[in-house]
Design a protein that fits this description.
The protein is an alpha+beta fold. It has helices at residues 48-52, 83-86, 88-104, 114-127, 133-147, 197-208, 211-216, 221-238, 244-251, and strands spanning 5-18, 22-29, 34-39, 58-64, 70-79, 171-175, 180-182, 193-196. It has two domains: 5-79, OB fold (Dihydrolipoamide Acetyltransferase, E2P), CATH 2.40.50; 83-152 and 179-251. Helix 5 (133-147) packs across helix 6 and helix 6 crosses helix 8. It is elongated, with a radius of gyration of 20 Å. Bound molecules: zinc ion.
Length: 255
């Protein structure tokens, strides 16, 4: 391997056509940064890259540095995650993870834990029971926000920091624009909506839970979708980021 080449592990989050037979792939690298590269011949079904560099798959690759984009020279499949491409429900719940990564990860910006968390979320979606799927995606999106320093506050007033006891009240005033829950003293100064305390408690819990625990505890579809809805508004109103795949998931009526 010369100085113009390097090895890395990637999680493929987007494929785009480039010329007749080539692809441009966007992927998350092990250090949490985004990389875009060319896979020559990968649009031909018989090309080895076609099956080793699929959407949602993880691969060890050898890359040659190019003038604009790097070019993949070798690829070894690590996680196929085939179900995420062949099962419509699994595909729909995996897509917001890929879209959020594509929008939030950046070239040359390391984000510790982002790769391993995302890889684990997709592996669990590939094998878990259907009812747990929305909760896994909701947890992955909340963890991603936390790693990027953009986590919502659910049990502390986002203005003054006063703790909010989610067990003591049925609902919480919440401001997407201002960063989360708002206490009764600060509520007059802000535009807020009402969220069930139980949903806020689930947001907090899922942000901290491992994916193994979510599967083991069989966190159900309704809980998953309630938290996903908060994530959807959070990305749109706090980050000004409309995640198309999350809107689709909310409106399609799957599960
Ligand atoms: Zn306050």
């Amino acid at each position: 391997m010369g100085s113009g080449s390097y090895k890395t592990r990637v999680l493929v989050i987007r494929k785009k056509a480039l010329r007749e037979s080539d692809l441009i792939l966007d992927a998350l690298q092990e250090d949490g940064s985004l990389v875009s590269f060319v896979a020559k011949g990968a649009r031909k079904p018989t090309n080895p890259f076609a099956s080793r560099l699929e959407l949602f798959s993880v691969a060890d690759v050898c890359m040659a540095r190019g003038r604009n984009l790097d070019i993949v020279k070798e690829a070894r499949l690590v996680d196929s995650n085939e179900r995420l491409r062949t099962d419509i429900d699994a595909s729909a719940v995996a897509s917001p993870i890929a879209e959020a990564l594509r929008r939030c990860a950046q070239k040359d910006l390391e984000v510790p834990h982002l790769f391993e968390m995302s890889r684990s979320a997709l592996l669990h979606l590939d094998s878990c029971e259907r009812q747990c799927m929305p909760a896994i995606t909701a947890a992955a999106l909340l963890k991603l926000l936390a790693f990027l320093g953009m986590r919502p506050s659910f049990n502390r007033c986002t203005v003054c920091g006063t703790p909010i006891d989610l067990n003591a009240v049925p609902s919480v005033r919440f401001s997407y624009e201002s960063g989360g829950a708002v206490c009764s003293s600060c509520v007059r100064t802000l535009q807020t909506i009402s969220l069930p305390s139980s949903t806020c408690a689930w947001c907090n819990a899922l942000m901290m839970m491992t994916f193994d625990t979510i599967v083991h505890e069989q966190i159900d579809t309704n809980t998953g979708f309630a938290v996903l809805d908060i994530c959807r508004h959070w990305f749109r109103e706090q980050l000004n980021m409309k995640l198309v795949s999350l809107d689709c998931l909310a409106s399609w009526g799957l599960f």
